[in-house]
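Try this one yourself first.
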């Protein structure tokens, strides 16, 4: 694995190297940093270490996965309590003044200028870096799939979430459905748009970089207790490093490389399309 950042900037870190594979990994909630000017946000260190501050464990999974595939991983380094980079600018939960019952005093009563500052310093550079990566690949004519990495709390408002992981998708469910099947074949309980559903408004990263650009994509959520320690992170990185290329191979076989080739015979289609993929394009929830 690699712990070294190949590239750093104010709001993002880049891990791994691109050695020809299709995947671009993105991690909106891997970071826990707070800009010095904002102090501690008025939130205790203990609270900031909870899931409200970041996606627990996804940093270790993402970085090891980037090394194993190998692939480039673009990680947001700031806490989502500063600004949530999986929300569109101006979204009601972009900069929250209360998160899961915890007040965030530094986010109360922000002026438009203060909000714009966070966009300029944190949100926009991160997404610009992802755009740059995708632009370069498309310019080079390279098939590209966007994989967004997240983790979720084992329990929410008293409900024990039964899923080991969830696959989130919306307008283009093709790659997501293949990966969902592969994870389930691995013996896991996997949510289909659970614990969250991907929607036009709930998310920003996949709608912007996957759906809008018509690139194959999926969003994966892993339950935090499974990746809280190094052993779990390694286990999940190895699982995803095994299954993502398998999912891509199946995707290319069904849809053509990059998902843009339509020249499939009906017979091929019948033989190779998994049951869940045949439903792609229908309502996802
Ligand atoms: Zn997340």
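Now uncover the answer:
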């Amino acid at each position: 694995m690699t712990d070294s950042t190949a590239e750093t900037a104010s709001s993002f870190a880049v891990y791994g190297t691109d050695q020809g594979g299709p995947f671009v990994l993105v991690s909106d909630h891997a970071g826990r940093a707070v800009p010095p000017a904002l102090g501690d946000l008025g939130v205790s260190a203990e609270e900031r270490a909870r899931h409200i501050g970041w996606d627990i464990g996804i940093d270790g999974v993402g970085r090891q996965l980037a090394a194993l595939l190998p692939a480039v991983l673009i990680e947001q380094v700031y806490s989502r309590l500063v600004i949530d980079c999986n929300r569109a600018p101006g979204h009601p939960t972009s900069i929250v003044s209360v998160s899961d019952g915890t007040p965030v005093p530094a986010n109360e009563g922000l002026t438009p200028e203060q909000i714009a500052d966070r966009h300029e310093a944190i949100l926009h550079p991160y997404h610009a870096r992802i755009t740059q990566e995708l632009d370069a690949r498309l310019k080079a004519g390279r098939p590209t799939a966007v994989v967004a990495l997240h983790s979720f709390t084992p329990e929410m408002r008293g409900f024990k979430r039964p899923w080991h992981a969830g696959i989130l998708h919306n307008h283009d469910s093709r790659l997501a459905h293949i990966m969902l099947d592969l994870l389930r074949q691995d013996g896991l309980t996997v949510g289909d748009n659970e614990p969250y559903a991907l929607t036009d408004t709930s998310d920003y990263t996949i709608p912007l970089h996957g759906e809008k650009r018509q690139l194959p994509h999926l969003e994966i959520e892993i339950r935090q207790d499974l990746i809280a320690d190094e052993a779990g992170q390694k286990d999940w990185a190895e699982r995803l490093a095994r299954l993502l290329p398998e999912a891509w191979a199946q995707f290319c076989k069904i849809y053509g490389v990059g998902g843009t080739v339509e020249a499939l015979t009906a017979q091929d289609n019948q033989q190779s399309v998994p049951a869940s993929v045949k439903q792609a394009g229908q309502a996802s929830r």
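Discussion: The first helix runs from residue 45 to 48. The two ends are 37 Å apart (CA to CA).
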